[in-house]
Structure formats: structure tokens, C-alpha cells
Predict the structure of Tropinone reductase-like 3.
Amino acid sequence: MEKIGKRFQGKVAIVTASTQGIGFSIAERLGLEGASVVLSSRKQNNVDEAVKKLKAQGIEAVGVVCHVSNAQHRKNLIEKTVQKYGAIDVVVSNAAANPSIDTILETRESVLDKLWEINVKSSILILQEAAPHLRKGSSVVLISSIAGYQPESSMAMYGVTKTALLGLTKALAAEMGPDTRVNCVAPGFVPTHFAEFLTKNAEIKKNIEDKTLLNRLGTTEDMAAATAFLASDDASYITGETLVVAGGIPSRL
Ligand code: NAP
């Protein structure tokens, strides 16, 4: 981390689902690069712990409990951010659920609803809430998945919701430009709690590594670096794009 710059000095960044895993690393990276960071997730103690970890690194951070499918929580997240920091420069929508490994035709309606609600609808509703406070030159990054391109059977419907984010990125980029850029990161496989069911199994892990061209899983820092790039002015002529960060796992041409 010694070489990182200060691209977010004076900027305010909200990252959803940011108390561990990819979201935490994104918040950490933006904070190390100078942003004031608003952390959030469902559990107060996770929020408190994560804020403590960032503050210990000299990062300006606050935490707000926000279950992304709760309207009052979303409103509160944005209100607290604006009260404390005045405006918003970066929103990273990172929350997702993958509650079932059923095939699509066997997935219960309640699970279909949950997948849509957490993985797609909540991103839209958070941005509706944030939009009036976004500064000129602001940036949104949605976190999709390599599964959005290749919805494998064990996570097919989850993959389809991640495909929806690719379209959402295009549509929102058109709607929110020129003042706000909207981009997307599609991570490959990263050994977090979320992906434990795949990456803890030695055989599956080896299969995934073999599918990459770099012979390894991704790290949360890999995802944070790509997200920070898209959110920063280094990407000031990039909008409506998805950056696949998957070690070369096939996605699209
Ligand atoms: P993770 O390590 O399991 O972290 C999940 C974080 O989300 C935690 O901070 C959790 O804290 C919070 N959270 C969970 N449900 C939430 C909700 N409904 N509302 C608000 N916060 C919530 O997960 P991850 O692997 O970093 O995944 C982050 C994103 O990357 C997801 O969008 C996922 O689809 C995507 N992704 C991951 C991989 C991978 O291989 N890991 C690959 C492709 C894409 P609380 O428990 O306190 O809520």
C-alpha cells in the first residue's frame, strides 16, 4: 500500500456492506487515498469494529447501520452522511445476497424476491436517495460479479441479478451524466465469507484457480484497486462500463 496516491482528498464516499470483505477493502482504500468514508452494514457491532479499524489507520470514517433493503436505514445512511460531510462524491453499491444454490426453476418465489430486492432494487433505491446530494464530478460504482457473465448452476439466479447490474450501469450512466459517472466492477472469485462455500473446498478452489490465467483467486485489495480507479478522476472519461477483475476468467470480448 506504500505507493497509493491521494485521489480522494476532500471527497466523501459511501460504501454499502462495507464492514468486511470486498466492501471493507474498498472503504479502506478510498480512505487511505484521502476520502472521508461512511461505512455501513446490518449489524451495529460490525459497523463499530470496522470504523475502529479505519480510524486506527488515520482514516476519517463514520459508521451507520444500513440493511440495504430497509427504507428507513437507507434514508438514515444518506441523511447522516450529508449532516456530517455536506455532500457525496462517491457511492459504491456493494451489498448482495446469495441465499440458495437451487437451480432457477427450483428457486422459491420468496428467494427470487430477495435476490432482486437486495442485489438490484436496493442499489437503485440508495441512488434515488443519494442523487440530490451528489456533487458535480461524482462517481457511482456498482459491484456485480463474473457470475453476471457466466451464471454457473450453483449460483445461476444470483448470476442473473448480477447481469442486471451490467444493464443498470449503462442505463444509470445515461441518466446521471454528465455530472455523475456510473461504472461497475465484476469481481472474480475472492475468498471472503460470502464465497466460503466455494473457496474453502480445496477441489473447487483449485478448479477456479485453473480457470484464471494468473493461477490464483482474487484478493479484496484487487477489487478495491479497480473500484478506486473507476471512482477516481483517473477514470474521468469512463462511464457506463464494467471492469472485469477476475484474473482472466472468460467473460466477454
Ligand atoms: P462478505 O465478505 O461476506 O461481506 C459481506 C458484507 O456485507 C459484510 O460487511 C456484511 O455485514 C454486509 N451485508 C450483508 N448483507 C447485507 C445487507 N443486506 N445490507 C447491508 N450490508 C450487508 O462479502 P464479499 O465477498 O465481500 O461480497 C461483496 C460483494 O462482492 C457482493 O456484491 C458480492 O456479490 C460481490 N462478489 C463477491 C465475490 C467473491 O468471490 N467474494 C465474487 C463476485 C462478486 P453485516 O453482516 O453486518 O451486514
